[in-house]
Amino acid sequence: MNEVLILVGVLLAAVLCLLVYLIVVRGSAKKILAEAEEKADALRDKARTDSDAKLREADLAAKEKLLQAKSEFEKVSRQKRQELEQLERRLNQKEDNVDQRTEDLARREKQAGELERELARHEKELNRREEELTRLLDQERHKLEQIAGLTGQQAKEELTRVMETEARNDAAHLVKRIEDEAKENANRDAQRILANAIQRNASDFVSETTVSVVLLPNDEMKGRIIGREGRNIRALEMATGVDLIVDDTPEAVILSGFDPFRREIARVALERLIQDGRIHPARIEEVVSKAKQEFEEQVQQEGESALLELNIPDLHPELVKLLGKLRFRTSYGQNVLKHSKEVAYLAATMAAELRVDIHIAKRAGLLHDIGKAVDREMEGSHLELGIDLLRKYGEDEKVIHAMACHHGDYEPETVEAVLVTASDALSAARPGARREILESYIKRLEKLEEVAQSFKGVQKTFAIQAGREIRVIVDSQKISDEDSVWLSKNIAKKVEAELTYPGEIKVTVIRETRSIEFAR
Question: N or C: which end of the chain has fewer CB within 10 A?
């Protein structure tokens, strides 16, 4: 029973506490709500005040922008108004000018009409006079035909023939005079340039053949070179590819071969074997192998020395090597490397005188015969091989063109190409530079005389000055002085077309008139 009472008491206490808590919380809530309402009212009042202030500021800003825009509009309007007034004044002025020009045109048109009528009157008068002159000319022509016994067409043809003959004679005289003046000036300038170029480059005469001679200390060495049953000489010939001629020539052995590179290797190897004294097949192979290696180095040095001597940079290493090989190559007995350097010197000197590209002229002159370094190893002419080599190793097309023209196979398009051609002819054609077989030399002279003899009116021909000049004696009854000018030109053109020769050939036509009478 007591427990129940305690439980009831506890429940009543809890309910009472709950009621007290609710009363307290409700009071607090009312107080918080009242404070919130006061804050909300304060915020609303502040917001209303701020919005009113911003509205007033926006209104003022809008009015200020409106005034500014109005001012700008008035300013632009004034400018446009001024421009329109200026345009109006210009239009009025142009209208006045147009009116003035219209009046001028009307006045000129009136004057033109008067001139046209005057011209028509003059034209009518001229037509009448022309008809009168035509009638008179017909009468005079008829009288002249009766007097001369020729028709008008016949007289016209006769007059045309006479005028044509006189014109041809005058043209021949004029051509001869102009050519003489041009040749005189050109020869003077050419002689100065060539003399200057040749004076700066004085070269020795060249005399090389397809054989090399190795001197021996004594005739006993011949037996050692031949060896037992000829084994040493056979080993040397097999290693070098060169024929050894051991004959009755005292204290000398002859090396024969058309390949100058092999012949040079054989000469060096044989000289070393003679100095060493040990001559047997194994030693021969060793010395020849070493000589070949040193020959390659020497070839490289020769090419580099030529470039250094001519001050030519940036040449492909393979071209340098091929250039060095030309040191051991000859053409008609002339050393090709020396010839190439000589051509480069001459071309560069003349290019400097003529103020053209010295670099291209010198480079093309040095490389113009580069194909001769490989022409015995590859098929084709040395010119085409040289062009292929230069293109393969990236040479300039201007250099390739200049070197390609040096034999006349291509038409020169640059001054440098002409200079290289002239330099090649100068270097090859100078006395002592090359040797030519007598038989081919005689055939060339006979062919030159035969070409000149093939023209009508030619009596005799003589090739003189080693084929550098052809003198032609003509029949004075068939060839006139004027015709001799054209004959020399035609002979020169035919020689250029049919013959191959270094340098140039002078054609001299001689016409002689003899009058003979006897006094009795």
Answer: C
- Distance from CA of residue 224 to its chain's centroid? 60
- SS3 for 225-243, per residue? HHCHHHHHHHHHHHHHCCE
For the chain, helix (H) and strand (E) counts, in that order, are 14, 8
Q: For residues 153-176, b (16+ Cβ closer than 10 Å) or e, as one string?
A: eeeeeeeeeeeeeeeeeeebeeee
Token code pair at residue 87 = 């345009």
Tell me, what's the pLDDT at 21?
72
Q: Whose structure tokens read 């009518």?
A: 124
Residues above pLDDT 90, as percent of the chain: 1
Q: Which of 303, 321, 210, 300 is nearest to 255 (CA)?
A: 210
CA–CA separation, 451 vs 501, rounded Å?
A: 14
What value does the CA radius of gyration of the chain take, rounded to a whole number of Å? 56
Express each pLDDT in 431-474 by its tens digit: 555 554 445 666 778 888 888 889 988 988 888 766 778 889 89
d(CA 26, CA 34): 12
Across the range 69-80, mean pLDDT stands at: 85
Q: How far apart are CA 328 and CA 305, in angstroms?
A: 14
Of the pLDDT bands very low, low, confident and very high (cuts 50, 70, 90), residue 161 is: confident
Over 84-103, what HEC string results? HHHHHHHHHHHHHHHHHHHH
Gap between the Cα atoms of 233 and 435, Å rounded: 32
Task: Look at residue 281 and give its three-state secondary structure.
Answer: helix
Partner residues linked to 460 by β-bridges: 473
